[in-house]
Structure formats: structure tokens, C-alpha cells
Structure to design on (685 residues):
């Protein structure tokens, strides 16, 4: 019941991890919105970004390593889409999903091969991994930066989708894939753009997440990936604000549950929440009404 | 075009499989196979690799054994149990199929308990190296062990916290469903409460990497010590988080934390870490010097040891386990697993970690000394404190 006496550390941790979940959840929700595909490899792209950072920072200065990690992760997301999903564009939806699961395992096993299965220590990024004190709660600075950066990125993303040509194309493709193709929208480049944005946000999320929890293993992407997927479904899959709010709710609730002393059930809670939401509101908080065109 | 691509991919896969199968070689002299049942990946991968290093080094020192007047080459067969209770029995079966006479391992009690029945059914004796949970050998007459047990280690740690640190409230954290940390935490709580202390006990689920709330809980509850004998992987994150939250209480753990992973995580940080272990570096100068030279002489070994030449207690234990197994073979005068199993009960051997003899109920080592070490955060090395002997 420590939460009731000193709620601040738990709220801080919750908001911070919620922001990191949000950045990953956007990737799930955007891809689903456009392709109706649950990209199971997304959590592993997040993990691989962490691995890139570990290996690159060993030989390059951080000022160079960080942008390079972002670029390589974006490239990886793009390549995964081109190699594993695009050839299956007209295949049954299930085949693409299986392909996504395959990519997920491929990435995990590659990471296992290159690390020898051992946890890698994520490098300390100066300034953001410094310890700071906020109203008596001691934490890393990244905890404070994460929510701000997340909100800023989300606003930028929403503006991008509302006000640019490619954003408009994205909305059109999400609305009706076939018709927008007929209208001359280059569906493939729209989809690539989606994967690029998703991977970029996952890379940023990974930098923030691993700065806080500084150990990267081949399975590091598993749990956060699953939780972010839950967050995306919770907020209404396909909806960006929904995914962000869902992620914050899950991050905060999880930490409050731990603070109440029910540490054993913190993960069970996340998944129980998913079941309840699906029973009560199958489309999620902000989900569009089911418009399956049969 | 597509068909051709698919065909090429199939051929590639078939070729790579074929390449895997062609590794066996036949040599003229007689051989005896010792299996090494250790994790090389997963939560306990780092520790398992260090324990395996001890066996590898021992094998390089003593690659042959004289049994009944004949010289046998010792073949060591390594499998990775992936620190996972689900994978343990198939890894064990792989060793059984390889025709091992005796098996060494594992680091981590959970996999040892999970793999135990496979060895028992095959009638192959196993020498546990650092699996400290009592359930490993209980009811399994084929499982032996050369390390101390958790009821003992838990008592030592509880006494240390209560008497040496003068703490009356302890925070205990273990991984949900993990036999090692769960067992040790329970024995600690039992002993600590008997002394008159109070414990706050929490568990974290598998795959968790956010320890913020656990550290915050310990702080808020006003605990004087943080006891968390978990895997080194989780330990890194706990240390990091404890530093980030500026905790003032010491962190206390069991033998798993006696690893250079912990040293690297704690170096240059303001944190107090104390562990109990099997062997303090420096206890056997000749052994330390030789194994350091061996580790430094090979890049792979050095990487497996975590990138430096610190001698982990589990490495010393792995070294002793190998020689203990050879001693049992010699006593049995045979490479037959059943004969070795009978001989193990009465095998005695004095290794670098001290004299090893087994009790006659479960085949556990009779050990009553635990070494206590503390991290020197300035230099990133261990400082040996007074060893604790009970009974």
C-alpha cells in the first residue's frame, strides 16, 4: 500500500513507461489502420534498435550513433515491409500475419546469435540518464523527458497526417484500400511511409526505454511489444490518439498496481484489461465502428 | 520466377541442415563422455557460461583419465538449456542420447529440477555444480551436488543482515515461479523472522524490466536492506534503478550475484552490494593465476567470462565439479553410469573451493562455510569480508 503514502514515484514511472509504450503502440495502430495487419515483428524492431545502439555506441561517439540508430531502424522497418509483407499483398490476411510472426522470430534469433544470448548493457546517454529530484522523488531525467517528447511527436504526427499530401493519402488508404488504389494513390509508397514512421517512433521509444531500463536481451521486445499491442487495441486499433491514451493508461495502472503491493498481478492486470475492454467495447476507446466490407 | 526462388530457398535450407549433421569424428583411443548441462542463453546465460568455463579449463588441464588401468580421453559434450524450465528436459535428453557417463550442471536450480527426471530415467548420475535449491536432489537419487544449500545460505544472509548490518526490516524480491530465487527468499524470510526481524516480500513476473516500483516500494516501506537473489540480468536493472532512485540501504544477494556482470553494473556508482558465495578470488593463488592466463589467452573465453579475467565462484565450482566427476569414475573403475552413481556417494575430493564430500541422504555436499563479498565500486572489484561458518 506504499502507493497511498508516496504516489509520486509510481506516477512518474507510470507516465514515463506509458510514453515509451505510446511510441511503440503508434506503430501497431498505424500499420493496422492501413493494412489491417497486426505487425508482430514491431516489438522486435524495437529490441533491434536497442541492440544497434549497444553495438554502434561501442565504436562511435553518441552524437553519431543516435542518428545512425534511427536511420538503420527506419531502414529495417522499410526492408521488412518490402521483403516479408509486400509480396503477400494479395494473399489471405492470415498469411501476412504468419509472415510477421516469422520475421519476429528471425529478428530474435539473429539477436541471440550476435549477442550469444547474454544481456547487453545499454550505454549511458549523458544528460538524459542523469539522476534528478522532483518533489522528493529521485529518478532519471529521461522519466521527465519521455512524456513531453511523446506528446510533441504525436502532435507532429497528427499534423503530418492531417495536413500533408502523403498524410491525406494515408487516411484515404486506411478508409478504403481498393478504392484509393483505383484513384491513383501509390499504395505501396504510402505503406512504406507508414512503416518508416512506425519504425522511427519505435527507435525513439527504444532509446528512451532502454535508457531507463538499461539492459537489452533478444527477448526484450516481447513484453513491451505485447503490452503496446494491448494499448493499441485498448485505445481502438487504427486510432493514433487512442493508442497514445491507451499506452499511458496501461503504463500508469501497471505501476499503481505494483505500488499497491500486488506486484505479482501487474502483468495479469494488463491482459485482464484487454479482455474486459474487448467484451464491453469491442472497438476500443476511440475505435471506429466496424466497417468490414464483405 | 517465384517457383525458382522457392526452390533455391529450399535447397539452401536442406544444405545447411546437411552441414549440421556432418560434425562427428572417430578417434582411435577409448573415450568417456561427460555432459555439461548449462544455460548459455536466457536469464542465466552469463552465469552458465562462466560455470562452463570452469569445466572447459579443467578439461584443458586434465584431458584424460585413468580408469581401471586404461587411459580414456575425456570428451565433453555441452548443451544449452536456455535457462528455461521448458527446454531443460529436451536439453537433458540430448545429453542422454550422446551417451554421457556422467553429467555436470546446471547453474540455476529451476532447470536442474526440470531436467532431473530425464537423467534419473536414463540412469545417468548428475553432479550439480551451483544449484542450491534443496528440491534438486530430494527424491532423485541420481542427482548429487557439490555446493551448499539454500536453507544454509538463507540463514547466513539473514544473520548477516540482522547482526552485521543491524537491520530489522528487510525487503525481499524474487522472480515469480523461479525455483532458485523463490526458494532462497523463503529461507531468508524464515531465518530473518526467527531472529526477530520483519520482511516485506514481493515478486516480479517473467520478462519484467521495470524495477522502478519495486525499489520505490522498498524505500517507502522503510526497509533497511534490499534482498534480491535474482538472475544477473534482472540484477543489472535493479542496481541501475536503485542508483537512479538514490537508495541508501545496501543490496544483498546470494551466489548468482557473484559475477563480474554485477561489478560492471555497479562500478563508479554509489551503491552498496554484498553477496554470499562459494569461492573468493584469491583463495587459491595458483589456480587464479593459471585460469586468468587461460581466459586471457583466448578471445572467446574472455567474452564468455564477461570481457575481463575476474574469477567467478561458479567457474571455480565448475572446475572442481569436473575433477570430482573424474575422481568418481576412478573410484568406480568403470565408465558405466550405474557404477559411477554408486561410487559418487562415497567419493571425496579436495578442490580449490575446499574439501568435497557428500551426505548419505540426498547426496548433497557437506559444506558449512559461505564466503561474503562486497563490491568495491571505485575499482569495480570484490572485497572479501569474513567468511561465515555455521554448525
Amino acid at each position: 500500500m506504499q502507493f497511498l503514502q508516496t504516489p509520486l514515484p509510481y506516477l512518474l514511472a507510470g507516465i514515463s513507461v506509458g510514453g515509451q509504450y505510446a511510441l511503440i503502440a503508434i506503430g501497431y495502430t498505424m500499420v493496422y489502420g492501413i493494412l489491417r495487419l497486426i505487425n508482430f515483428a514491431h516489438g522486435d524492431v524495437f529490441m533491434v534498435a536497442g541492440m544497434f545502439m549497444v553495438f554502434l555506441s561501442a565504436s562511435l561517439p553518441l552524437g553519431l550513433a543516435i542518428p545512425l540508430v534511427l536511420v538503420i531502424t527506419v531502414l529495417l522497418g522499410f526492408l521488412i515491409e518490402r521483403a516479408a509483407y509486400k509480396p503477400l499483398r494479395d494473399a489471405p490476411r492470415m498469411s501476412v500475419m504468419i509472415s510477421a510472426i516469422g520475421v519476429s522470430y528471425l529478428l530474435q534469433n539473429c539477436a541471440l546469435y550476435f549477442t550469444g544470448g547474454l544481456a547487453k548493457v545499454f550505454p549511458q546517454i549523458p544528460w538524459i540518464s542523469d539522476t534528478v529530484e522532483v518533489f522528493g522523488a529521485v529518478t532519471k531525467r529521461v522519466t521527465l523527458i519521455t512524456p513531453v517528447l511523446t506528446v510533441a511527436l504525436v502532435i507532429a504526427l497528427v499534423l503530418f497526417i492531417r495536413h500533408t499530401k502523403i498524410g491525406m493519402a494515408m487516411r484515404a488508404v486506411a478508409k478504403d484500400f481498393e478504392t484509393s488504389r483505383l484513384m491513383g494513390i501509390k499504395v505501396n509508397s504510402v505503406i512504406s511511409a507508414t512503416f518508416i514512421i512506425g519504425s522511427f517512433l519505435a527507435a525513439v521509444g527504444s532509446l528512451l526505454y532502454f535508457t531507463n531500463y538499461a539492459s537489452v536481451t533478444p527477448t526484450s521486445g516481447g513484453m513491451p511489444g505485447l503490452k503496446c499491442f494491448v494499448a493499441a487495441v485498448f485505445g481502438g486499433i487504427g486510432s493514433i490518439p487512442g493508442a497514445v491514451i491507451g499506452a499511458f493508461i496501461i503504463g500508469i495502472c501497471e505501476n499503481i498496481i505494483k505500488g499497491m503491493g500486488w506486484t505479482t498481478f501487474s502483468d495479469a492486470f494488463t491482459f485482464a484489461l484487454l479482455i474486459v475492454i474487448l467484451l464491453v467495447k469491442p472497438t476500443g476507446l476511440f475505435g471506429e465502428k466496424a466497417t468490414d466490407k464483405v | 520466377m517465384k517457383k525458382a526462388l522457392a526452390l533455391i530457398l529450399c535447397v539452401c535450407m536442406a544444405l545447411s541442415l546437411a552441414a549440421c549433421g556432418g560434425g562427428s569424428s572417430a578417434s582411435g583411443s577409448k573415450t568417456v563422455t561427460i555432459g555439461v548441462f548449462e544455460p548459455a542463453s536466457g536469464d542465466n546465460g552469463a552465469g552458465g557460461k562462466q560455470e562452463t568455463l570452469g569445466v572447459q579449463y579443467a578439461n584443458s588441464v586434465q584431458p584424460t583419465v585413468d580408469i581401471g588401468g586404461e587411459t580414456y580421453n575425456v570428451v565433453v559434450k555441452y548443451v544449452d538449456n536456455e535457462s528455461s524450465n521448458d527446454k531443460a528436459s529436451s536439453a537433458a535428453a540430448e545429453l542422454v542420447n550422446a551417451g554421457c557417463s556422467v553429467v555436470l550442471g546446471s547453474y540455476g536450480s529451476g532447470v536442474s529440477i526440470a531436467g532431473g527426471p530425464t537423467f534419473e530415467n536414463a540412469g545417468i548420475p548428475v553432479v550439480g555444480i551451483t544449484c542450491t535449491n534443496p528440491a534438486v536432489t530430494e527424491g532423485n537419487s541420481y542427482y548429487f551436488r557439490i555446493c551448499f544449500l539454500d536453507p544454509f545460505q538463507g540463514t547466513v544472509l539473514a544473520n548477516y543482515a540482522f547482526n552485521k548490518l543491524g537491520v530489522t526490516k528487510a525487503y525481499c524480491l524474487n522472480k515469480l515461479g523461479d525455483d532458485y530465487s523463490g526458494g532462497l527468499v523463503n529461507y531468508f524470510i524464515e531465518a530473518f523472522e526467527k531472529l526477530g526481524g520483519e520482511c516485506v516480500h514481493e515478486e516480479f513476473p517473467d520478462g519484467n524490466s521495470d524495477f522502478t516500483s519495486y525499489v520505490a516500494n522498498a524505500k517507502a516501506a522503510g526497509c533497511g536492506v534490499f534482498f534480491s537473489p535474482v538472475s544477473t540480468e534482472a540484477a543489472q536493472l535493479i542496481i541501475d534503478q536503485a542508483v537512479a532512485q538514490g537508495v541508501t540501504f545496501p543490496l544483498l544477494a546470494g551466489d548468482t550475484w557473484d559475477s563480474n556482470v554485477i561489478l560492471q553494473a555497479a562500478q563508479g556508482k554509489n551503491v552498496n552490494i554484498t553477496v554470499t558465495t562459494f569461492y573468493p578470488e584469491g583463495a587459491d593463488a595458483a589456480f587464479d593465476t593459471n585460469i586468468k592466463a587461460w581466459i586471457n589467452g583466448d578471445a572467446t573465453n574472455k567474452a564468455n567470462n564477461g570481457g575481463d579475467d575476474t574469477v567467478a565462484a561458479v567457474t571455480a565450482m565448475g572446475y572442481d565439479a569436473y575433477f570430482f566427476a573424474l575422481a568418481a569414475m576412478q573410484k568406480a573403475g568403470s565408465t558405466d553410469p550405474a557404477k559411477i552413481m554408486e561410487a559418487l556417494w562415497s567419493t571425496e575430493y579436495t578442490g580449490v573451493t575446499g574439501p568435497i564430500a557428500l551426505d548419505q541422504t540426498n547426496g548433497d555436499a557437506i559444506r558449512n562455510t559461505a564466503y561474503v563479498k562486497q563490491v568495491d565500486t571505485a575499482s569495480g572489484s570484490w572485497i572479501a569480508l569474513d567468511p561465515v561458518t555455521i554448525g
